[in-house]
Amino acid sequence: GRIPLSNEIVLRGHTKVASALAVDPTGSRVLSGSYDYTIRMYDFQGMNSKLQSFRQLEPCEGHQVRSLSWSPTSDRFLCVTGSAQAKIYDRDGLSLGEFVKGDMYIRDLKNTKGHISGLTGGEWNPKSKETILTSSEDGSLRLWDVSDFSSQKQVIKPKLKRPMRIPVTSCAWDHEGKRIVAGVGDGSIQLWTIKTGWGSRPDIHVEKAHTEDITGVKFSTDGQILLSRSMDSTLKV
């Protein structure tokens, strides 16, 4: 059946695939990111019939926009591109800073100050306005404090059958901001609960969840159901 629509508009502007969307919690602003390397910012309250964006940004020259996420208070947003460094912007698109990059020559990812390869995803904690999560092709997830761009809070390395670097292809918080889930390049889905003294060992590890890269993971509002999307042309619950 069709999705019931009362109103429909089409926002045009990008020249390549629109790869990321984020609606702020108040519902008044929308961000769109694209493989054309740009972000477009739309404001529904100030928009006229031309439906044009009020600002266009190019966060990292030559890098596709992979993920966009608003803070729970709608005053800032997180931008994740194919570079190794996530960026934070204010509500009007002014850059507030970018997180530090790690040293690619350090073998143990736990000892690097930041990601060393391109990012694949990222999300603002829905309950904490100072915490964000990022995932990367370097095989790690990281938690960051938004008030300090130079140091990370935690490095998480997914469980693998043998020591090697396999990309983490997607990540997400649950709606309470207490659990994180990741899609890993070996086809597994792994879940961690954030509690005192927790480490990299996942609480739940679903092997062979998909046969190709997992491009998206999402918790249901009540946190009981997990949805995953993959390049193997399937959605799984």
Automatic annotation (TrEMBL):
Pfam families named among the record's database cross-references: WD40
Alphabetical list of Gene3D superfamilies matching this protein: YVTN repeat-like/Quinoprotein amine dehydrogenase
This protein's name: Uncharacterized protein
Domain of life: Eukaryota
Spans of repeat WD: 11-45, 112-154, 168-197, 207-237
Keyword Repressor: no
Signal peptide positions (record): none
Keywords for this protein: Repeat, WD repeat
A GO-annotated cellular component: nucleus
SUPFAM superfamilies for the chain: WD40 repeat-like (SSF50978)
